[in-house]
């Protein structure tokens, strides 16, 4: 197998849903990290079943040879009224990840989202896209948060995400245009790129110089088509099973890995499935995804 120049890890969202709480509700932290160790992977993100005591978390991960790569941080920077409060929370988040030895922070704006924005009400039906003032406020907040991260040796990596205001290729472009490239990086997610209407390879090539972190996620085309026809929201799409691990959906990862190998990407790339583990066993799907990736790399090494 061709040797990877980058580090391959896995997200606990394969075992326990973050947006759909019933997915993996009975799964324990120990099961997740034992499975990760058995898979031979050495990186994870923080999950909602993980202990929050730093000493306990450090001990449990260290015993299994696993490091904490990152943790999701929601922000509400698009509304200036929340910015100072949000920046203070971001600083605390940075200090936690710094203590855990992480180097990147998965960061996403929740303003306008149906499911994540605390200002939204249950009877609303659509994501509220940003106006010009919202874009400017978001960019200012991200630049300031990125400076806090940089002060402590970490990178803010922006997670474009389904069901949020930075979802489409055009919105990714706008965010990259408005933010400081020395302070705000991109978390490139293959599945969310496609879900948002983009071509993952195109987005990867266009914004490669800003990418500091990667999530490898696949899409079930038939589920996405059905969801679009029914005009359901993002969380309903997850419940329907729109996402899966690489090799189990419609995305072609061969050119994506070719691009990463050619450019000698050295950061982390995390396997993600984000599906119900009761019907899609997290360990088995992850193992199949690793076999798929190894087959692609073996093929690439023979070319």
From TrEMBL:
This is Inosose dehydratase. Residues 34-289 form the Xylose isomerase-like TIM barrel domain. It is an enzyme of class 4 (lyase). InterPro entries: IolE/MocC, IolE/XylAMocC-like, Xyl_isomerase-like_sf, Xyl_isomerase-like_TIM-brl. Signal peptide: none annotated. Its EC number is 4.2.1.44. One of its GO terms (molecular function) is myo-inosose-2 dehydratase activity. Keywords: Lyase. Pfam families: AP_endonuc_2. NCBIfam families: myo_inos_iolE.
């Amino acid at each position: 197998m061709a040797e990877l120049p980058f580090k391959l890890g896995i997200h606990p969202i394969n075992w326990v849903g973050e947006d759909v709480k019933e997915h993996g509700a009975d799964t324990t932290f120990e099961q997740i990290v034992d499975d990760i160790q058995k898979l031979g992977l050495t990186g994870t993100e923080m999950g909602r079943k993980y202990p929050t005591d730093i000493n306990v978390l450090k001990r449990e991960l260290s015993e299994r040879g696993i490091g904490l790569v990152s943790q999701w941080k929601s922000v509400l920077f698009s509304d200036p009224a929340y910015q100072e409060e949000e920046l203070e929370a971001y600083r605390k988040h940075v200090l936690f990840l710094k203590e855990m030895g992480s180097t990147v922070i998965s960061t996403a704006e929740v303003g306008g989202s149906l499911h994540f924005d605390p200002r939204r009400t249950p009877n609303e039906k659509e994501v509220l896209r940003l106006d010009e003032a919202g874009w400017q406020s978001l960019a200012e907040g991200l630049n300031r948060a990125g400076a806090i991260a940089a002060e402590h040796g970490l990178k803010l990596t922006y997670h474009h995400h389904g069901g949020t205001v930075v979802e489409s290729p055009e919105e990714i472009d706008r965010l990259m245009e408005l933010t400081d490239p020395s302070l705000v990086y991109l978390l490139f997610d293959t599945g969310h790129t496609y879900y948002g209407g983009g071509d993952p390879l195109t987005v990867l090539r266009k914004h490669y110089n800003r990418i500091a972190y990667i999530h490898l996620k696949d899409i079930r085309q038939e589920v996405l088509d059905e969801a679009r026809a029914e005009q359901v929201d993002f969380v309903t799409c997850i419940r329907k099973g729109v996402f899966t691990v690489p090799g189990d959906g419609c995305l072609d990862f061969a050119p994506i890995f070719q691009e990463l190998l050619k450019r000698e990407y050295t950061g982390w790339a995390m396997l993600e499935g984000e599906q119900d583990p009761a019907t899609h066993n997290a360990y088995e799907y992850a193992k199949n995804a690793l076999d798929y990736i190894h087959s692609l790399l073996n093929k690439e090494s023979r070319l």
